[in-house]
Amino acid sequence: MSSIPGPRRVGSAEIIHHEGYDETIVSPFVPAIRAVSGARLVFVSGVTGAPVYHDHPHRPEVFDSMPLDIAGQVANAFDHLDLALRAAGAERSDVVNLIRFFTDVDADQDTVNRHQAEWFGGHIPTSSSVQVVRLATDPRLRLEIQAIAAVAGE
């Protein structure tokens, strides 16, 4: 086990580790991130593999073209996250928190973790993963991701 490193600056945030940190452990999250002074927070609504813009009440046929496999759904969800971040003037490296909602953690978490690691390219945000009975948009959805980003102030 290595010593606890000091905060490491990443964009408008600092990565925080605490006692028990072991740099040899592969993990898709860090324990804490602190936004630095002047950072603007961006809150991204939950994204899924379904179209971002859709009618309410939901019309099931709108979701018939979405992928049913987790690989397709996670790719779409992170594409949708990219669109929201860019529209808000944020980048992937600005993401400080993810909340991941799974309908089947055992079946899907490894695929999501792999895609997430590639998507972030070495950046690791804080995160929580929760298993839910189903997602509100469509019962065929397997994953929803909510994010918070900290963007450098202007």
From TrEMBL:
Pfam families in alphabetical order: Ribonuc_L-PSP
InterPro entries named among the record's database cross-references: RutC-like_sf (IPR035959), YjgF/YER057c/UK114 (IPR006175)
GO molecular function, one term: deaminase activity
Domain of life the protein comes from: Bacteria
Assigned GO CC terms: cytosol
Family: Belongs to the RutC family.
PANTHER family: 2-IMINOBUTANOATE/2-IMINOPROPANOATE DEAMINASE RIDA, PROTEIN HMF1-RELATED
Protein name as catalogued: Enamine deaminase RidA (YjgF/YER057c/UK114 family)
